[in-house]
Write a structure and sequence with these properties.
The protein has 495 residues and is α/β, with parallel strands linked by helices. The chain contains 17 helices and 15 strands. The structure holds cobalamin and iron/sulfur cluster. Residues 13-15, 18, 20-23, 25-26, 75-77, 79-81, 103, 105-108, 110, 126, 129-131, 134, 202, 211-213, 216, 254, 256, 378, 383, 409 line the site of cobalamin.
């Protein structure tokens, strides 16, 4: 191994403007020990050109970066939805130079380590947090000592797999360096609507059956507290740096449940308000807010809050998703947020196992009542490491295509639903906002448009030009949502 190994990270995300904090933390940790790094971020190439094959463009740009940077290691952060891309990129790397070490990290190798390490072009995987594991590995590599005992890593060695235990969770989040921002273009510092992303906490303790947190809690049992909080001073020092160095105008806390710990939150808001006049965005559960809290958040600068509804049907929420939050509570949380002057975003899932078309309409109905400023609707995907996902995956008859291939996650139907056909799900996902935003008298037109939209071939059956046309139609329907009326006007105001 080179005495000064260079690491190229890849983030194969899909959301344009997305900031991969996971990798940004790793880059910051490696910079501290003088390891040269670079980030190849795929989402800039997702601003789909109507002409040209994004896949080919990504390959061309990636080969150019490989050639210029000449990394010793390529590390890829992998979610299940982009595992197919990850696999392919590992092959590109090995075809280019088989000596380059390929490492996978992120949620996918954490929940599916056996499948990940067995991939032909993958040399190592990181199971769980990499903040301490990655610098330790690199230190060992550059000193030329055996690194195959590094906790949290799995290795291939002489035809065998070495499986090291995950190390304990980082308990003192203040000990971590601030996420690196220099690896991103300056436009990310002013990303559409939400600004720069930041984590103030880690972990969420709820048992939702479609989320991997329950699995992660099991994985880390006996390895420290799962829910952790940074000190206010540490967060503020990072904010000071972001304001002076990058002139940020707002901040987005991408923590899963920002108001989980009431005492921590109130203390945070009090100090934040004294020190900053910086609008912020956050997300939490509707059962974790009340008027007093939302008012305190607003007073401190909260301009936007995302909360999940998931389904309008109580039985599905309670018995299938294990989200025991009443309709009244959800409606109230959104109403009060609006009353105190905070804009809202609502997350929804359709295609939940057992869901009927009436249930989809119940979800549309509650969204109409709530009338959030932004609406997000995705189709249920069966992730490994989630109880609902595992239940679906246990019978291959339920599966239409592997989640691993579902890169365009919002328009890809992976489950053979018992009641709802893939076409119906595609149509309702695509036109969800239209049904919510437009008054019932326009629904006949939406039904018509949805009907034609549903004629699109499913992703797994579309190749070449058909796929390109399919994506073009989907993107157009997606972008046309901007012209739907929202509580803030026709298009979301910038914060
Ligand atoms: C914040 C977040 C987002 C953010 C940004 C993600 C990001 N990359 O920063 C946004 C809002 C954009 C997002 C979007 C989505 N997300 Co999301 N997200 C999360 C969340 C809540 C936290 C992730 C996080 O930052 N954690 C803190 C960091 C520090 O931990 P980490 O990400 O695990 O990274 C550490 C290690 O994994 C490791 N590591 C990571 N990468 C690498 C790489 C290498 C080489 C190495 C060695 C180590 C390593 O080191 C890191 C530092 O310790 C997780 C939930 C969770 N518990 O993980 C879901 C989660 C990752 N998301 C999920 C999903 C499904 C999505 C969406 C598809 C949702 C949707 N349907 O709309 C989209 C897809 C976006 C895309 N990429 O195309 C799923 C993934 C399931 C799966 N198996 O793939 C999760 C697990 C939630 C769930 N359902 O359970 N997400
Ligand atoms: S509340 Fe959200 S982040 Fe927490 S476990 Fe449930 S789905 Fe996951």
């Amino acid at each position: 191994m080179n005495k000064n190994p260079k690491v190229l990270f890849i983030y194969p995300g899909y959301i344009v403007g997305e900031q991969p904090l996971c990798v940004q933390y790793l880059i910051a940790g490696l910079k501290k020990i003088d390891i040269e790094t670079r980030l190849f971020h795929l989402t800039p190439y997702r601003k789909r050109p109507y002409f040209g094959d994004p896949h080919r463009i990504i390959r061309r740009e990636f080969m150019r970066v490989l050639h210029d940077f000449q990394p010793d290691i390529v590390g890829i952060s992998t979610m299940t939805i982009n595992f197919a891309t990850t696999r392919e990129m590992c092959k590109w790397v090995k075809d280019y130079n088989s000596k380059i070490i390929t490492i996978l990290g992120g949620i996918h190798p954490t929940i599916e380590p056996e499948g990940s390490i067995k991939e032909k072009n993958v040399d190592m995987i990181c199971v769980g947090e990499g903040d301490e594991a990655v610098p330790e590995l690199l230190e060992k590599m550059r000193s030329g000592i055996d690194y195959t005992d590094t906790a949290s890593f799995w290795f291939k060695k002489d035809g065998e797999i070495i499986r090291n235990e995950p190390r304990p969770l980082v308990q003192d989040l203040d000990s971590l360096p601030f996420a690196d921002r220099d690896c991103l273009e300056s436009e990310y510092m002013d990303a559409e609507l939400f600004g720069v992303n930041m984590h103030a906490t880690r972990g969420c303790p709820y048992p939702c059956t479609y989320c991997q947190n329950k699995f992660l809690m099991e994985l880390y049992k006996g390895k420290g507290s799962f829910c952790r909080y940074r000190s206010y001073e540490n967060i503020f020092a990072e904010l000071d740096e972001l304001i002076t160095k990058y002139k940020i105008k707002n901040i987005s806390f991408s923590d899963e449940t920002f108001s989980l710990n009431k005492k921590w939150l109130y203390g945070f808001l009090k100090e934040y308000k004294k020190r900053f006049a910086l609008p912020f965005v956050c997300q939490t559960r509707p059962d974790l807010v009340d008027r007093e809290m939302l008012q305190a958040m607003k007073d401190a600068g909260c301009q936007f809050i995302n909360m999940a509804i998931e389904s309008g049907n109580e039985q599905l929420r309670k018995n299938v998703l294990h989200r025991n939050i009443s309709r009244e509570k959800m409606v109230e949380a959104f109403r009060v947020a609006r009353e105190v002057g905070i804009q809202t975003g609502a997350y929804n899932i359709i295609g939940i196992p057992g869901e009927t078309i009436e249930n989809v309409w119940e979800t549309i109905d509650i969204n109409q009542e709530i009338n959030a400023d932004r609406i997000f609707c995705t189709v249920f995907m069966p992730f490994k490491g989630t109880s609902l996902g595992e239940e679906m995956l246990s019978d291959e008859k339920n599966i239409l295509m592997p989640v691993e291939d579902a890169e365009i996650y919002y328009s890809t139907i992976t489950v053979k639903h018992k009641i709802l056909t893939p076409r119906l799900l595609l149509g309702y996902q695509g036109f969800f906002d239209y049904y919510v935003r437009l008054s019932k008298k326009f629904h006949f037109a939406v039904h018509g448009l949805r009907y034609f939209y549903q004629l699109l071939p499913p992703v797994h059956k579309a190749g070449g030009i058909v796929r390109a046309i399919r994506e073009m139609v989907i993107e157009s329907v997606y972008h046309a949502k901007r012209f739907l009326p929202t509580p803030g006007g026709f298009y979301m105001k910038r914060l």
